[in-house]
Every structure is written in structure tokens, then in C-alpha cells.
């Protein structure tokens, strides 16, 4: 267990970073399936379906940032888009969930498209 001195020297706690990453990943996986259901019901095909996924996944990340990360980073004096205190990299935060949830999105998209259109 880290001591108080170690927290003062390195205030970023790896366990907290892993927890934050897991919470964001779970949210993005869940919303990817929900977006797949919506795209299948709407009957989206080809590029329109993928564009739907990318737009709404980025919207989900922006909303997560606005409600969870931005208020705490502004209070602590970090920059507006600095997520390094809560996540490993900014790339992982902003685009990590796009490819992680893509398989679930395609699965539910094709399932519900087939159920509605068949």
C-alpha cells in the first residue's frame, strides 16, 4: 500500500486510472450496443450506419467528459482538455472506445436490421 509521501510525490494513483478507464470502457460498450439497436431499427446501411456509430460514440465521450472529467479538472487547475490525471493518454480517452465497441455495434446492428427488415 502506498504511503502518504508516495502520494505527494506521484499523485496519480494507478488503481484509480485503471478504474476510470474501465468505467469509460463499460459505458462505451453499453452505448455501442444501444446504438446498434437504434441503427438496425432505423434501417441504416453501409456508410450511414458507420457514420451513425462514430458520431454518437464521440458524442457519448464528449458528454462523459463534460459531466465527469471537466468539472474536476477545472477545479484542480488543469487545462480544459487535459485528461492525463485521470486516464493514461488523451488518445485513449477520446478514441479508445471507438474500436472497442465496434464489434458489439455491428453485431446488434445486423441483428436488429435483420429482425426488422426480414
TrEMBL record:
Topology in membrane: Multi-pass membrane protein
GO biological process: autophagosome assembly; protein folding in endoplasmic reticulum
Segments forming a coiled coil: none
Matching InterPro entries: Emc6, EMC6-like
Subcellular location: Endoplasmic reticulum membrane
Keywords: Endoplasmic reticulum, Membrane, Transmembrane, Transmembrane helix
Entry GO CC: EMC complex
The keyword Metal-binding is annotated on this UniProt entry: no
Pfam families, per the entry: EMC6
Transmembrane domains' residue ranges: 27-44, 50-70, 91-116
Family the entry assigns: Belongs to the EMC6 family.
Designated name of the protein: ER membrane protein complex subunit 6
Organism: Pseudomassariella vexata
Amino acid at each position: 500500500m502506498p504511503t502518504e509521501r508516495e502520494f505527494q510525490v506521484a499523485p496519480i494513483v494507478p488503481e484509480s486510472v485503471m478504474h476510470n478507464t474501465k468505467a469509460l470502457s463499460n459505458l462505451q460498450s453499453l452505448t455501442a450496443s444501444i446504438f446498434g439497436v437504434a441503427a438496425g431499427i432505423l434501417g441504416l446501411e453501409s456508410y450511414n450506419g458507420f457514420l451513425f456509430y462514430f458520431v454518437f460514440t464521440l458524442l457519448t465521450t464528449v458528454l462523459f467528459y463534460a459531466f465527469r472529467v471537466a468539472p474536476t479538472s477545472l477545479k484542480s487547475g488543469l487545462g480544459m482538455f487535459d485528461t492525463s490525471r485521470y486516464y493514461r493518454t488523451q488518445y485513449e480517452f477520446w478514441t479508445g472506445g471507438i474500436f472497442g465497441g465496434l464489434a458489439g455495434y455491428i453485431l446488434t446492428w445486423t441483428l436488429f436490421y435483420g429482425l426488422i427488415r426480414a
